[in-house]
Amino acid sequence: MASETVRLDTWLWAARFFKTRAQAAAAIDGGKVDVNGARAKRAKPVASGDELRIRKSPFEYRVTVRGLAEQRGPPRVAAALYEEAPEGKRLRERLAEQLRLAPSLRYQGKGRPTKKDRREIEKLRGG
Q1: What are the structural domain ranges in the chain?
Q2: CATH of domain 6-125
Q3: Is 56 within 8 Å of 100 (Cβ atoms)?
Q4: What are the DSSP E strand ranges found in 17-69?
Q5: Which of 9, 44, 61, 63 could serve as 24's disulfide partner, Cβ 3.0–4.6 Å?
Q6: pTM of the model
Q7: Among 65, 83, 50, 63, which residue's Cα sits nearest to residue 1?
């Protein structure tokens, strides 16, 4: 654990929302992360109790900061740094299930599709 505040990009990386700090910074710069309902900059200090909204396509995480860390640790330690809102978790799990069950429009056979296969693929795509 660290001091009373940590940079937002460092915390997102330490909490394992992003694989690198550069990815976390890019998401923050792109407006994909809100702190307490407002758009934040990467050096914004994060403290315990802050509400974060993190949008990682196609999912959205709504979390409350419970702990601070400046270094990335094991997943179990990272999971203890935040608490996810139950309704946000439910929505995210429902979306994941829908995406898993959605039919794939990709060719499932081996090699290059035949002319007949290509026509079926185009028909599925609405073309």
Answers
A1: 6-125
A2: 3.10.290.10
A3: no
A4: 33-35, 38-39, 45-46, 51-56, 59-65
A5: 9
A6: 0.76
A7: 65
Going by C-alpha positions, the residue among 68, 63, 69 that lies closest to residue 83 is 63
- Cα(35)–Cα(75) distance, rounded to whole angstroms? 23
Per-residue pLDDT tens, the chain, 127 aa: give them: 446 889 999 999 999 999 999 999 999 999 999 999 999 999 999 999 999 999 998 899 999 999 999 999 999 999 999 999 999 899 999 999 988 888 776 656 678 888 998 899 898 888 6
* Contact by Cβ (8 Å): 34, 69: no
Long-range CB contacts (< 8 A, 24+ apart) of 34-40? 35/8, 40/8
